[in-house]
Amino acid sequence: MTRRELLTLAATGPFLARRAFAAKAAPSAPVSIAKLATYTNNDEIVSTISTMFDQIGGLGRLVKNKTVTVKLNLTGSPSARFQGRPLGSTHYTHPKTAAAFVHLLDKAGAKRIRLVEGCFGTNAPMEEFLLDSGWNIRSLQSLSSVLEFENTNVAGKQKTYQRFKVPSGGLVFPAYDLNRAYEQTDVMVSMAKLKDHATCGVTLSMKNMFGITPISIYGDDAGKDEPNEDPKTGRVSVCHEGKRGPAASAPQELDPKSSRHPGYRMPRITAELASARPIDISFIDGVETMAGGEGPWISKLRYVKPGGLTLGTNPVCTDAVATSVMGYDPKAPRGKAPFEDCDNTLWLAEQLGVGTCDPARIEVVGVPVKDAVFKFRA
User: Fold this and answer.
1) For residues 333, 335, 340 and 342, what is the CA-based torsion angle, rounded to 10 degrees?
2) CA gap 298, 294 in Å, rounded
3) CA-based nearest residue to 332, from 347, 318, 317
4) How far is CA 217 from CA 206, 270, 283, in A?
5) pLDDT exceeds 80 at position 122
6) Got the DSSP string for 100-153?
7) Alpha-carbon span 348 to 368, nearest angstrom
8) Is the pLDDT of residue 20 over 90?
9) Rounded Cα–Cα distance for residues 45 and 96 (Å)
10) What are phi and psi of 149, to 5 degrees?
């Protein structure tokens, strides 16, 4: 902690007291764990996920006659593969789990299903990105007549952006300008992979939502004053490193003199996004994945097969259980695995009142955590 940060901390006593109260009052919700060894059997995937929803109260009560937006996890370029393996077996949402979700949502009576992602470095239609990633679009479309796709890197079909305020006032940004697809929804779903992360420790349902920030505004080549609707880059300069601000049309940083370290910034941005655009359903795929990082651009990766799924209606609770499944302590402080070089995103989200990361306060149904553990630090 720098002297500046220490002085700031001393001056925010009442603010931290409110945060402590929010943490004590942070909600809890049941989390389901299931075992699934492979993606081979489509019927088994559908049946397993359906049972998991039944264990936490049923899917119909959540989505019937509602617009459901599903944020996929398609991080990085489709050309970046690990050991030549299929993208869905390492760091992407698997096409078969996405198909199972579309089928179940349609069967449960959702009136509109929209698959979304901030597709890496492009404003092209999401369907094109999925085709490049090896997905069968026609097969997906055959599962529901109310299925849509949206690349939320830009305003796209929505033409304008919607501002989402961070209820607490924010940690890095007070609000975010996002594609209106995130406003025009009743139920927000985050479909994540069970993975380590270089600057957040773990990347689960909350970190997956970082991809909702449009690169037209938060990208390295974002417009200076207005969004750049033809962006080509990622979000490193604006979000990870804070070397420049987002387009001036969007809210700027609260404290431009705060730490520029990605391990300080990214956990806070992730936590406040989970507060500003709440997640209603969190799904984490750990059937097959990678350990050691979030994508092929990270060194010392390992292909692993934890063989399980995690599902819940509170993102902090669900991520906390998934973190435990990975063999980590979800309440671990900075400096302890998996948060050796970053702050604990789960704890920060708890301070914002999003949910609890205390395993003692979270009911686990289905497979017990002890029977699902797959240690990512073997």
Assistant:
1) 60
2) 7
3) 347
4) 20, 17, 28
5) yes
6) HHHHHHHHTT-SEEEEEE--TT--S-HHHHHHHTT--HHHHHTT-TTEEEEETT
7) 26
8) no
9) 8
10) -130, 145
Residue 221, both tokens: 């080549």
Q: Give mean pLDDT, residues 245-267.
A: 98
pLDDT digits (tens, 9 = 90+) for 307-329: 999 999 999 999 999 999 999 99
DSSP bridge partners of 187 = 68
Q: Report the alpha-carbon distance of residue 272 to residue 348 in Å, rounded.
A: 8
- Whose structure tokens read 């479909």? 191
Give which of 15, 356, 5, 28 is closest to 169, Cα–Cα: 15
Please report the DSSP string for 254-272 in residue order.
S-TTS---HHHHHHHHHHH
Question: Would you tell me how many other CB atoms lie within 10 Å of the CB of residue 29?
Answer: 18
Residue showing tokens 């001056």 = 11
Query: For the chain, what percent of residues have pLDDT higher than 70?
Result: 94
Calpha distance 262→264 (Å, rounded)? 5
In whole angstroms, give the CA distance from residue 120 to residue 77: 6
What phi, psi does 189 have (nearest 5°)?
-115, 135
Written as six digits, the tokens of 335 are: 């400096």
What token pair was written down for 188? 């927000």
Mean per-residue pLDDT of the chain: 94
CA dist., res. 222 & res. 178, Å (int)? 14
- Asked whether the beta carbons of 374 and 286 are under 8 A apart, the reply is yes
How do 187-193 and 67-71 pair as beta strands? parallel
Rounded CA separation 267/269 (Å)? 6
**Residue 56: both structure tokens together:** 């936490």
d(CA 224, CA 207): 26
CB 140 within 8 A of CB 98: yes
Contact (Cβ atoms closer than 8 angstroms) between residue 93 and residue 86: no
Structural tokens at position 108: 């449960």
Distances (CA, A) of 203 to 56, 148, 197, 213, 310: 23, 26, 5, 16, 13
Least confident of 10-24, 27-41, 197-211, 355-369: 10-24
**Nearest Cα residue to 164 out of 188, 199, 138, 193:** 188
pLDDT of residue 378: 75
- Cα separation, 289 vs 203, whole angstroms: 12
pLDDT value of residue 19: 52
